[in-house]
TrEMBL record:
Pfam families, A to Z: KYNU_C (PF22580)
Organism: Coilia grayii (Gray's grenadier anchovy)
Gene name of the record: KYNU
UniProt keyword Cytoplasm, yes or no: yes
Record GO terms (molecular function): kynureninase activity; pyridoxal phosphate binding
Modified residues (N6-(pyridoxal phosphate)lysine): 276
Protein name: Kynureninase
Keywords tagged on the record: Acetylation, Cytoplasm, Hydrolase, Pyridine nucleotide biosynthesis, Pyridoxal phosphate
Binding site for pyridoxal 5'-phosphate: 137-138, 165-168, 221, 250, 253, 275, 305, 333
Domain of life: Eukaryota
Its EC number(s): 3.7.1.3
Protein's job: Catalyzes the cleavage of L-kynurenine (L-Kyn) and L-3-hydroxykynurenine (L-3OHKyn) into anthranilic acid (AA) and 3-hydroxyanthranilic acid (3-OHAA), respectively. Has a preference for the L-3-hydroxy form. Also has cysteine-conjugate-beta-lyase activity.
Cofactor(s) it depends on: pyridoxal 5'-phosphate
Pathway assigned to this chain's UniProt record: Cofactor biosynthesis; NAD(+) biosynthesis; quinolinate from L-kynurenine: step 2/3; Amino-acid degradation; L-kynurenine degradation; L-alanine and anthranilate from L-kynurenine: step 1/1
Reactions the enzyme catalyzes: L-kynurenine + H2O = anthranilate + L-alanine + H(+); 3-hydroxy-L-kynurenine + H2O = 3-hydroxyanthranilate + L-alanine + H(+)
Length: 465
């Protein structure tokens, strides 16, 4: 029996329960799904913190020797086991041969990031020459906007979400001001309909059709950080380009999460961090993408030595031999100590495919959704009972790993009780928890344990009031 062959996650859960002759909510279902998970071995490639290692460990109410329930890969992914080994290799090389490390060994510092660009390109659905690993996300966004945002009096607006991640909002605001325009007039912000939490694709496309002649750049997130909504990148790109706009995406919450096809969808530019679902560590090396169609037409506004062709870079003649495409946007050499953990993680991704990870992710997140709705839906017969709404779209094609859970009661006390029980997740006051079951290392049994923990935490927090 293959649970992944079912039409929907709900079908899979029901079929497994029937096969096992148990309730769909039984832990037997989770164990069965784990036993039949062809990607379960990937969990072994990561270091999972123990409950006793997490704050507030002195208040822990469960066995401290157990693995914690880590559902916060949407903020910081777990450490790949090979990260320490690779870092120590480079520290040893630095200690033992100094400057010669730039050109010697399996990871020469002068071009170490070039060796893993193909692995990164595979994760985001791009060609190798369309991807560069450099800087941090917001730095890359600024570099890209400097070249793609060329406002005129007729076409000067940038379309983005009203609740875009602050970095994107600030970057757009400053880029507009830099060109002498007024952000109040040149930022076109889209909000969901009244009473709704997420944007409808048809509303986005309608805005592009209506306002497109005045829009220079469309900048959306691939997956919205708060709601977990996975935008229809292909449709937005097609609509924007049809109106003469450049279309770019901040894929911080999409890279390593959903099956991206940046090249095939014709996206003009994109950028992402690598420390969330790509597991490169806090402040890890970021990525940038420019479609090959712009390789010889879009030039960097700022240039540096690392944008110079490697074959002639060290001739030092101060005559720029600019790399085409995104490679020319490099400014300086990349920190080798950031390359190492990124390589360690990308090698784990290379053990499978984004298609396979996405397939598991849909079932894993669907299983979480099923249990949340079963135990914590609003009870009309008991209005005093706390309940949970899922603000992430129910349509599987409109979400990634993350479910954003909106509680009917304030969240802080519940969150604190969950921490005591070994759960690592993300709280957004006043009432939202972001839960992200990552298919690389989360299991179905993790999800089942989480559901029980939510119940115990709700009860404990209620008793404290």
């Amino acid at each position: 029996m293959d649970p992944l062959s079912a039409a929907t996650p709900y079908d899979a859960i029901q079929q497994v329960a029937k096969f096992l002759n148990c309730k769909p909510t039984s832990a037997k279902v989770a164990r069965f799904l784990d036993e039949h998970d062809e990607l379960r071995h990937l969990r072994e490639q990561f270091v999972i913190p123990k409950v006793s290692q997490l704050p507030p460990s002195d208040l822990a109410l469960v066995d401290g020797s157990e693995d914690c329930l880590y559902f916060v890969g949407n903020s910081l992914g777990l450490q790949p086991k090979l990260a320490r080994k690779y870092l120590e290799e480079e520290l040893d090389k630095w200690e033992q041969m100094g400057v010669h490390g730039h050109t010697v060994g399996s990871r020469p510092w002068a071009w170490a990031e070039n060796n893993i660009e193909q692995l990164m390109a595979n994760v985001v659905g791009a060609k190798r020459e369309e991807v560069a690993l450099m800087n941090g996300l917001t730095v890359n966004l600024h570099l890209l906007l400097l070249s793609f945002y060329k406002p005129t009096t007729e076409r000067h607006r940038i379309l983005l979400e009203d609740k875009a991640f602050p970095s994107d909002h600030y970057a757009v605001e400053s880029q507009i001001s830099l060109r002498g325009f007024d952000p109040e007039k040149s930022m076109l912000l889209m909000s969901p309909r009244k009473g709704e939490q997420t944007l409808r694709t048809k509303d986005i496309l309608h805005t592009i059709e209506k306002e497109g002649d005045s829009i220079a750049v469309i900048l959306f997130s691939g997956v919205q950080y708060y709601t977990g909504q996975f935008f229809d990148i292909a449709a937005i790109t097609k609509a924007g380009q049809a109106k003469g706009c450049y279309v770019g995406f901040d894929c911080a919450h999409a890279a390593g999460n959903v099956d991206l096809r940046l090249h095939d969808w014709g996206v003009d530019f994109a950028c992402w961090c690598s420390y969330k679902y790509v597991n490169s560590g806090a402040g890890g090396l970021a990525g940038a993408y420019i479609h090959e169609k712009h390789a010889h037409t879009i030039k960097p506004a700022l240039t540096g030595w690392w944008g110079h062709n490697l074959k002639t870079r060290f001739q030092m003649d101060n005559k720029m031999d600019l790399l085409p495409g995104v490679g020319g946007f490099r400014l300086s050499n990349q920190p080798i100590l950031l390359v190492c953990p990124l390589q360690a993680s990308l090698e784990v991704f290379n053990m499978t495919s984004m298609k396979a990870l996405r397939k598991k992710s849909l079932l894993l997140t669907g299983y979480l959704e099923y249990l949340i709705k079963h135990y914590y839906s609003k009870d009309e017969t008991n209005p005093q009972k706390p309940y949970v709404d899922i603000i992430t779209p129910s349509n599987l094609e409109e979400r990634g790993c993350q479910l954003s859970l909106s509680f009917s009661v304030p969240i802080r006390a519940i969150f604190q009780e969950m921490e005591k029980r070994g759960v690592a997740c993300d709280m957004r006051e006043p009432n939202v928890l972001r839960i992200a079951p990552a298919p690389l290392y989360n299991s179905f049994s993790d999800v089942h344990r989480l559901i029980n923990t939510i119940g115990a935490s709700l009860q404990a927090s209620n008793e404290l009031q």
